[in-house]
Request: fold
Amino acid sequence: MKNLNGYSHKIILQKFNELFSFVRVASLSIVFILAVSIFSFTLLSHTFASNVTEEIGIKYSLAEKYTDIIYEVSFTATNNQTTVLDYYTLTIPQTEISADSLQCNGRTQNHDTYKQSNYSNITLSLDGYILKPGDKLSCTFQYRLLNENTQIDFPAKYADGFDTKYIEITYPSSWGELVFSSIKPQENIKNANFYKITFLNPQITNIRILLGNSLKYQYTISKELSNSSDIILTHEIPLPVATSRQMVSVDYIDPLPNNSYQDIDGNIFLVYDVQPSSKIQVNISGNVMLVDNNDTNSIDDESSSIVDYWDLQSESEINRISLYLNQNQVEIKKNYGLYKALYRYVIDRLSPTSQESSSVENPLRGGVEGALSRKSSAISEDYVDFLIALYREHGIPSRMSLGYVYSPDKNKNGFFHSWVEYFDQKSDWRAIDPALDDVSEGDFFDSDLSDHIAIIQRSSNAFNPKLPYFTDSEYNFVLDDASSDIKENLTIASEKTSVPNFMPTVTNNLTFTNTGNTIINSIICEELGININQTLLPKDSVQASFTVENNTNNSYLCRYTDINNQSSSSTINIQIDNYTYWWEKLLPTVISIIPLIIISIIIYHFVFNKKHQIKSYSNNKKPKSLSS
Reply:
């Protein structure tokens, strides 16, 4: 249920105490931030206030050097009573306004502007205007705000009792796409020169939108790892996790870690061994780019299995949920209605504690059963555990995200936090934050939560991996549309091989070097029998051996994939130089002589035998002596 007592120091979407909020109107390369503050409309007639229905709409037309702002206010008599309207005062949080005009029912009205230190009162004299039942008085106040100081205010909700019918924002198309909105717009019209965004009946105090080519954060990690013991200690630093909604690059690591790995849930960790009585200063930087759906993570059994803190065993609570779904006519099937109904059930069932821990790993966490035991003082993790348990109970894949919620307000820090991601019927992972929703105004189920940056995900285990403690300065995120793009590139080098001609096969090594700015986690050279499944950081190398036939030089294709599920390929030419020994050179000659020798022997043998036979024959033919 809604409660604004908890988390007030942490949430972004809270009521501003100040009347100003600052935004920077940027060109195509700069992210444009529209921050919102509260307008105060004061009705100075009791009869006016009680017998008149007021509707308010605001149009903002943005340009490079100025913003034209139009407030459309309509008054309708209620309770079948005729009402006399005396005057109306509008308080706006600017003083340097120009080109202002005010009309009611198409007629120009006189008005007075009273400038204060940091706001202006616009007083409209209605001169006893008679508003009969069914009649409508429509007034528009238009003024121009110069952008010299980049001071532009965009109200979304007024003082209690006055809701905004619509907010319309028009801006040059050269400023880029709508890459973030704190609530989902009902209309987003694009043409060649201008884009128009419309929000109908916004139920939150502040609307924040970001414009640009893409929503990109630069992250910096600056952490001192110390070891005062007499043994080697191992420290792990998690990088932002690559998911279906965010792509991650690594531009700088100093020093390189002793090891790195990717766990079953896709989390990336850098491992540093710190020697006894020593320190290591680790500095890392890179980018996180939010995307619509990168399809990095497919559905697996871990995201649907009921484990640990995500096991709802209370039969009474299960029956209560069934009754809630029946009363709200929600079908028990995986669709938008069920996703949102279970989300609203958790928010209605729990109330936030006013003493939230500053750590994302709250020691009070007790899983779904712990959440039910302290429904009136729930911590952030209670909302996460309860919702994941409900989703998995109904067969909806879901997981826990731990990360950082960014604040574009320079006067307010972001904070480390936990939320839920679920897999919807459109085959897309979506981020939702029931804990933050319960302490904010409005319904953020349909928001894309582009200010939420995941560092760690838990799908197979409700407890691990852990997110170590970091201060804002140690793990920091800033919007940076001008930062480098995410590029995957793999360089393959082969040692030149020299082998004797008579060897049938050749064995050698390939060296793979990551020359891009993302992490490669798979290398496959199928024809060479190479299959490497390990994290390869930028500027890091790995070797693999292969064996091929000793015949001719060939080109082989190697495919590789990075943590963002981006695949590429490289071709490597294997050069083989053959050489011969001295005896190999004589061998052909020897081989060619052998037949001659054999023939010579045969001929000699034949000739010798023939001569021997002739001699023997001659001896036998000689005449006997006379004496005999």
In short: The chain is about 15% helix and 40% strand. Residues 170 and 196 are 4 Å apart (CA to CA).
